[in-house]
Amino acid sequence: MLLDAFGLQRDPFADTADPAFYYETIANASNRRRLFECLADGRGLAVVVGPVGAGKTSLFNAVTARLLEDPRYLVGLILDPTFSGETQLLRAVIAALGFPPLDSADMQPRGLREHLKRHLFDATVEQQRQAVLLIDEAQLLDEGLLESLRVLLNFQLDERKLLSIGLAGQAEIAEAVLRRPNLSDRVATWLDIGPLTESEAGGLIDHRLRRAGFAGERSPFGEPALAEMWRRSSGLPRRLGALARESLEVAAERGAREVQIDDVRDAARRLPPVTPQLKVGHTLPVLETTEPLTPKRAWWQLWGAAR
Question: For an engineered disulfide with 256, which of 59, 112, 251, 286 has Cβ 3.0 to 4.6 Å away?
Answer without folding.
Answer: 251
